[in-house]
Amino acid sequence: MPALSRSLSPGARTRSPWVLVLGILAALTAAACRTDVDVLVAVDPAGSGKVTVTADLDADAAAQLGDPSRLVLTDLADAGWDVDGPTAWRGGLRVVAVRRFSSPEELSAVLDEVGGAGGVFSDTSLVLGNGLLSDSTEFRTRLHLTGDPAQFSDEQLAQVLGGLPLGRTPEELAAEGFDSADAATLTVRVALPDGVDESNGRITKGVARWSAPLAGGTSTDTDLRASASTLRTSTLVLVALGAVLLVGAAVVAVIGAARRD
Which end of the chain lies in a sparser environment, N or C, as judged by fewer CB atoms within 10 Å? Predict the structure, then answer.
């Protein structure tokens, strides 16, 4: 399995720095390697937070890449991401990038950077509710995957990979077992204030989780939903105190009336 022959850089003119990075990882997946991508959305009570993208390459994918320094990630940093890696991880390589968002509207824009506008993530919303006794946070996005890592390729990446979307002909892809659904996986996780209590995904320790194949031809087109409610302890205390005072006042009034009689 020959190593890729050129430096791999997201490039300033691609649809999104992350789209090309994921396309590069997809090309490694097409070489019978394994790649896992994790997207964690962590929301703070005020509606700000951060998105963390972690891409793991197994030992075969790392060997296919060759020198880790060839995966140039400066464009991610220029786009506002804090990048760590590639670093050694379980015999392979790991890349971690973090970007903060200051509002629900910015979260939608950050996820568009990860998957490309109108691509992997769409119709993203983060709604904050303020009630008398509780606050609520509702996250929703639509996940669209074709089941073909070529979804993350573009003209620039094809040029890097010899004019082919994933650097290989359809015949070569078939011969290398490209139809394996477990060759690459995208996991999306969402953490909300005080923990997710309702979701159409799996909830583990207050974090909602969904996983879908990036390869194997199985498409994914589904809504991801998660919500959380936080009780306002101070309001509950005031309500309880007010109730006690009202009861006390009523008792005093009754006793006073009885004495007058």
Answer: C
Domains in the chain: boundaries? 17-232
Q: Is 182 exposed, middle or buried (0-12, 13-18, 19+ CB in 10 A)?
A: exposed
Between the alpha carbon of residue 37 and those of residues 25, 40, 183, 186, the distances in Å are 9, 10, 11, 5
CB neighbourhood size of 13 (10 A): 10
Angle between helices 17-29 and 104-115 (to 10 degrees): 40
State the Cα–Cα distance between residues 94 and 53, nearest whole angstrom.
10
Secondary structure class of 24 (helix, strand, coil): helix
Q: What is the SS3 assignment for 252?
A: helix
Close Cβ partners of 150 (under 8 Å, ≥ 6 residues apart): 26, 165, 166
Nearest Cα to Cα of residue 188 among 52, 50, 25, 10: 52
Q: What is the mean pLDDT of each run of 10 residues along the chain (261 residues)?
A: 42 49 56 76 95 86 71 77 85 89 93 76 90 81 84 60 58 60 84 94 96 83 93 49 52 52 57
- 242-245-246-252 Cα dihedral, nearest 10 degrees: 180
pLDDT at 10: 43
Note whether 4 and 25 are within 8 A (CB): no
Tokens matching residue 18 = 């992350």
Radius of gyration of the chain (CA): 25
